[in-house]
Amino acid sequence: MFKSSTEAVPEQLNAVPRHIAVIMDGNGRWAKQRFMPRIFGHKRGVDALRETIKACDAMGVEFLTVFAFSSENWRRPVDEVSFLMGLFLRVLESEIERMHANQIRLRIVGNRERFTPDLLALIEQAEASTAGNTGLTLSVAVDYGGRWDVIQATQAMLAERPELAAGFDEGDLAPYLAMNYAPEPDLFIRTGGEQRISNFLLWQLAYTELYFTDMLWPDFGRAALEEAVAWFGGRERRFGRISEQVNPAS
Ligand code: IPE
Ligand code: IPE
Ligand code: MG
Q1: 134: Cβ contacts below 8 Å, ≥ 6 apart
Q2: Which long-range contacts (CB under 8 A, 24 or more apart) does 117-123 make?
Q3: 44 belongs to an annotated ligand binding site
Q4: Minimal-distance CA residue to ligand 1 atom 5
Q5: Is 94 assigned to a binding site?
Q6: Distance of CA 170 from the midpoint of ligand 1 (Å)
Q7: CA 201 to ligand 1 center in whole angstroms
Q8: CATH annotation of 19-232
Q9: What does UniProt list as catalytic (predicted)?
Q10: Which of 88, 112, 217, 242 has the least C-beta neighbours within 10 A?
Q11: Beta strand extents in 102-191 (DSSP E only)
């Protein structure tokens, strides 16, 4: 288990983030600008993701977590929802070999109750078969919501340890959160111009550096990632302390 940023100041902080979390937004607008249907933007979004994974790997990022479908995205037109679910299934199938070749460990985080049985089976198989890989851990958030996560974790914790109903702390809850296997994100990136969290990793983003860019997700790639990481390198992460404590020389 990783220590949380609110329990202790993280010890080892690098210029390159260990964990990057991304809201891949702007696919629909990217397509619209080209007078194409929205789904075309989603397809191109997969290419941008592939390039981002490669770039993260090359930079030495250990964890990349991407938001692919939120718990609120079910509110979209049914055609788009079913296209996205189908795309997810096809991409899982077609990319699994590449993931092995690159030693990528895949995790899917979110509520699995609404997935079709074939998607569920594929997810389980992809996770199990990449579990032993030693490279980048890629987490794809699908039917994920930050509030869902906190509630499911609390329920799971109380089911296993009913005595905690009388009182518990964050260390008790942490093992039940969906991303218990990863340190908290160091850098959050949202493309597409909106400056909001949209119910992504509410708990885990407590001390994450937040980076927003107007670039639409299908245009994102190595150069844009490098720009975000360079910005990150210039932040002073104080975790509640004052500047002089962080940098005694300043
Ligand atoms: C993000 O792009 C992808 C998903 C939410 C699945 P959008 O589909 O939200 O694109 P915009 O924001 O409408 O441009
Ligand atoms: C957030 O994007 C979710 C994903 C990228 C999967 P949305 O496009 O759904 O967010 P809102 O609705 O603009 O906040
Ligand atoms: Mg959007």
Answers
A1: 103, 105
A2: 118/89, 119/85, 119/88, 119/89, 119/92, 122/89, 122/92, 122/93, 123/92
A3: no
A4: 69
A5: no
A6: 33
A7: 17
A8: 3.40.1180.10
A9: 25, 73 (proton acceptor)
A10: 242
A11: 105-109, 137-144, 187-190
